What does this fold into?
Amino acid sequence: MIIIIKKLFFIIILFSIFFSVLCSVSGENELERARETMVKRQIEARGVKDARVLNAMRKVERHRFVNSRTYSEAYEDYPLPIGHGQTISQPYIVALMTELCRLKGTEKVLEIGTGSGYQAAILSLIAKEVYTIEIVEALAKSAEKRLKDQNYKNISVKIGDGYKGWPEKAPFDVIILTACPPEIPGLLLEQLKDGGILVAPVGDFNQELVRVEKIDGKYIKETITYVRFVPMIRGKEK
Ligand code: SAH
It folds into this structure.
């Protein structure tokens, strides 16, 4: 009798392991399909063509960058709250801004506004090194942990005020802002390499997405579209 119970118990355990593996595999496949649909309908359909960008958007597991409450909306066509009054940007905007950076794989990139770490993860698959600054300590810490847990190795996170940039690591080939300043911070332009690109939302209520190229010490600005980002907060002077 005891042997039969033991056998039964063993069979139940085996069956539940098999079932949970099956569920997680089918869950993963479903998420992969959701990402593919996101790339096709929200990103390619709106004109993003850069194969590296599309590939990164397919690879990075966006559901691992959102709160558990919004997990099921991770691949929808809108920004989502990430706590502290901040948001993870709409997938299309992340793809568009990344494409505007014209990355080839050799660049040192500075991002202002780490937030969830999602944009940094996308950049890290296409650039050589990513430095990212976040002013809200709790967000910086959780993004750093999230990126480490997922094995992103070429991203450094710093708690600090993005208006100051990261002078110790400058100059950068690319600087990307994911919070909106009223005008482009001068210190960031100074930390851009000659030939480099800065992509940022700029403005107050009416915000424009701009790309600035530094050519022979001059800044050439191009306006891309209207956008809506959270404001870039002024850090406390020390
Ligand atoms: N790139 C993020 C989303 C950014 S939301 C992602 O992929 O999830 C904008 C972020 O900028 C917020 O987390 C906000 O706290 C941060 N931020 C605002 N002002 C800042 C500043 N002065 N320096 C650094 N980060 C700032």
